[in-house]
Every structure is written in structure tokens, then in C-alpha cells.
Design brief:
The protein is an alpha+beta fold. 19% of the residues lie in helices and 18% in strands. A two-stranded antiparallel ribbon has the order 1-4. Bound molecules: FE3-S4 cluster. FE3-S4 cluster binds at residues 6, 11-17, 33, 60-63, 65-66.
Length: 77
Amino acid sequence: AKYTMVDKETCIACGACGAAAPEIFDYDDEGLAESILDGNKGVEQVDEELEEDLLDAEEGCPTESIKVSTEPFYSTV
Ligand code: F3S
């Protein structure tokens, strides 16, 4: 299982992640990315069929802001 969230502190709103994984990532009013699965909390399991898109997004982010884990995040970001 995979979980994901965006570190908005380092996201530069480049827009690559939403292109790679539109069913996982969208942008807020400032253009910063966020996971739409669970309000960017990283606690909702990513559907298996979306894992490849997730990997593409993770690899494509120039600032490594796409966080991926096999455990849920309990972040306060
Ligand atoms: Fe931000 Fe990286 Fe996406 S910089 S917009 S999280 S590809």
C-alpha cells in the first residue's frame, strides 16, 4: 500500500504532479499541489491502479515535494 502527500513548504507550483497523476494531485489557490485523496493528509491509501501515476509524479517533481510512504502520514503540514 502507498500513501502520499505534498510538502507545500518546498513545492514551487511547477505543475508536473497534476499532469502525471491528475486523479491524485490538484492545486490550491496559490498553485501549490495537494493530494485530493484526503485533503493532503496522506492517510488515505492510494488505489493500486494509480500507483504508477504516483511514481511518475514523485520522480517528476523537481523539488522532491511529493512524499510517498508505505505507512500513513500523520503530518501536521
Ligand atoms: Fe509542486 Fe512538485 Fe507538484 S513542485 S506542483 S509538488 S511536481
